[in-house]
Specification:
CATH topology of the largest domain: TIM Barrel
InterPro entries: Amidohydro-rel (IPR006680), Galactose-bd-like_sf (IPR008979), Metal-dep_hydrolase_composite (IPR011059), Metal_Hydrolase (IPR032466), Metallo-dep_Hydrolase (IPR051781), NADH-UbQ_OxRdtase-assoc_prot30 (IPR013857)
Low-confidence stretches: 1-23
Distance between the termini: 61 Å
CATH superfamily of the largest domain: Metal-dependent hydrolases
Largest sheet: 8 strands, mixed
CATH architecture of the largest domain: Alpha-Beta Barrel
Shape: globular
Number of strands: 31
Number of helices: 16
Strand content: 25-35%
Radius of gyration: 27 Å
GO molecular function: hydrolase activity, acting on carbon-nitrogen (but not peptide) bonds
Organism: Undibacterium pigrum
Structural class: alpha/beta
Protein name: Imidazolonepropionase-like amidohydrolase
Helix content: 10-25%
Signal peptide: 1-23
Number of domains: 2
């Protein structure tokens, strides 16, 4: 940070009320203040050298001090999202007033880069990142499915060395995974003895140890192991009063904090963040790809009943005095950086917390829980990470969306906000390559020796090998068999463990260069003929800027049948930005065989 000028320091020390022109800064005048814990009556807040110099300034501002009108407005500390995976879209958080992200698993090189910028006071153009770096998980456990080679551990004796290695890399805290998955997608998981050893090893180095869980039992085990916090609650239609009381009692006795992450739990329950998605002030900063992520929740059907347990637990824990932190798990489908935190605040209120408590959950509470002593409050000497909004968000939480201005380390974010809005407008006007469909709609133009398509690339094999997987595929045209006078392609796949979401199949890239988007909006339906072994398969369509396909399942029965899938079945699909169409086997290990022919895109 820049040092305070001598003149300003002297004025503060002597109680002076006039500031030298050398102390360039700004004064937010006559504004209501939420200081991170409570609302303060209208006052003047003086900022200089990237810090709050006076949270109740009563003098005459010096020449060169910019005065900002705070009438009818509320000044908030910069918002803190207590659970993200900050591997992309670094430009977004600040635009929404999120000045700090607490990251639960990201690329170590990126973490090191931001750590260095923060150390030098040069991270003013994006949110600060407080990161766990690599998470602690078992071989084949949750966190290993993304194709990244990460260090795992399997027994308590490995815990201290594993923790020390993370600290050496620059991790601010330790994140531990207890996740067994479910019947259709099981995960190997750390045992309780190893979790306990990891917690002990982190505490020995004066680091927090937080735990990812997915069930009530896993939450109980994490708290019993001494976790400082749970970074999720869990979806469940029912939870007994006795289980609520027991979990609350244990969390309170352990002095643990809780990050419910309603944003991602709602995504699992098939719910969209409609409040912010229908607010044009919020969506003005999101391009089509970023919007597509928000419009594609994990759940295929709306199941609000799955939120019963996390709502009951959140309000019960809050009433018991257990710290509740606002975190979104942004980086997952159905969420987005920055914007989702405004939805998360509304979800906390929806669960039974007051708007004032929800504001604390996104400012002073996470700052305290993660030992961040320079932020989360509006008080003298704190970082000038600030958000000015119209209205009174302590009475109506949706007023956090009425953003007038954001400051990061005392620097205005106005130019970044305006630039991103302009970029989004331009991108929405720009058109991807328009593709004129063949008259018959056929996009599989198979012949001896070539699996051609009318797109930029031919059809070909696609497997999880580039993600470290071990699955394999064989594509072979049938010698004589045809369907509707179209050659039949025989597909034999072997799905093997090695990647948590293994696949193998047939795919085509629509552009002339890899991942180039093509506008296929002249069609609205995908049709194909299929026959097979009775297994379930999926059609996956990828769009520009996203590496996760939007999938719809289908079954390859023992007799030929036509499958027709409307684009509307692909949740959040933008037909004007399609990069890949694929037909995949997996994720269950085993041998698969199906035949496909007559693949068409049609307007119906």
């Amino acid at each position: 940070m820049h040092k305070t000028t001598l003149a300003l320091a002297f004025a503060l020390c002597t109680g002076g009320s006039h500031f030298s022109a050398q102390a360039a800064g700004f004064l937010i005048e006559n504004t209501r203040v939420f200081d991170g814990q409570k609302i303060l009556s209208a006052r003047n807040v003086l900022i200089a050298d990237g810090k709050i110099q006076d949270d109740n300034f009563k003098g005459k501002p010096a020449a060169g001090i910019t005065v900002i009108n705070g009438n009818g407005r509320t000044l908030l500390p910069g918002l803190i999202d207590a659970h993200v995976h900050a591997y992309q879209h670094q430009e977004l958080p600040l635009l929404y007033g999120v000045t700090t992200q607490i990251d639960m698993f990201t690329n170590v090189d990126q973490m090191k880069e931001i750590n260095e910028k923060m150390r030098k006071g040069e991270n003013r153009e994006r949110a600060d990142l407080i990161s766990a770096g690599v998470l602690a998980t078992a071989p084949g456990g949750h966190g290993t499915e993304y194709g990244l080679a990460i260090p795992t551990l399997a027994k308590p004796e490995e815990a201290q060395a594993w923790v020390d290695a993370r600290i050496a890399e620059g991790s601010h805290f330790i994140k531990i995974v207890i996740e067994h998955g479910h019947e259709k997608r099981p995960f190997n998981s750390l045992d309780n003895a190893t979790v306990k050893a990891l917690v002990k090893a982190a505490h020995l180095r004066n680091k927090l140890a937080v735990v990812h869980i997915g069930t009530l039992k896993e939450a109980q085990d994490a708290l019993a192991a001494g976790a400082d916090g749970l970074v999720h609650l869990f979806v469940e239609k029912h939870i007994s009063d006795a289980d609520v009381r027991e979990l609350v009692k244990t969390a309170k006795s352990r002095k643990s904090f809780i990050i419910p992450t309603f944003s991602v739990l709602e995504s699992i329950a098939g719910l969209k963040e409609e409040d912010v998605l229908t607010d044009k002030r919020m969506t003005a900063f999101l391009n089509k790809t970023q919007m597509q992520t928000m419009n594609a929740p994990y759940g295929q059907q709306a199941r609000p009943d799955l939120l019963t347990a996390p709502k009951l637990l959140t309000v019960a824990m809050h009433k018991a005095g257990i710290p509740i932190l606002a975190g979104t798990d942004a980086g997952n489908s159905g969420t987005q950086y920055g914007i989702s935190l405004h939805h998360e605040l509304a979800s906390l209120v929806n669960a039974g917390m007051s708007p004032l408590a929800a504001l604390s959950a996104a400012t002073s509470v996470p700052a305290s829980a993660f030992r961040l002593k320079d932020r989360g409050r509006i008080a003298r000497g704190y970082k000038a990470d600030l958000v000015l909004v119209e209205g009174e968000p302590d009475k109506d939480i949706s007023n956090t969306r009425n953003i007038v201005e954001v400051w990061k380390d005392g620097e205005r974010v106005t130019a970044q906000r305006e630039q991103k809005q302009q970029e989004v407008v331009q991108q929405n006007v720009q058109k991807n390559l328009q593709f004129d469909l063949p008259q018959d709609g056929r996009i599989a133009q198979f012949s001896k020796g070539k699996l051609a398509s009318p797109f930029g690339a031919d059809w070909g094999a696609s497997t999880d090998a580039f993600m470290g997987g071990k699955s394999s595929i064989s594509l072979k045209l049938a010698d004589t068999e045809t369907i509707n006078d179209q050659p039949v392609l025989n597909i034999d796949a072997e799905i093997r463990p090695g990647f948590a979401y293994p696949w193998a199949g047939l795919a085509v890239m629509t552009g002339k260069v890899p991942m180039e988007a093509v506008d296929l909006s002249k069609a609205n339906t995908l049709k194909f003929r299929v026959k097979g072994d009775g297994n379930q398969y999926s059609v996956g369509i990828s769009v520009k800027g996203s590496y996760i396909p939007i999938s719809v399942p289908f079954k390859a029965s023992e007799e030929w049948r036509e499958i027709s899938i409307a684009f509307s079945k692909f949740s959040g699909l933008d037909p004007a930005a399609i990069t890949i169409i694929a037909f995949n086997a997996g994720p269950q290990p085993g041998s698969y065989r199906f035949q496909i022919a007559d693949i068409r895109l049609l307007k119906e």
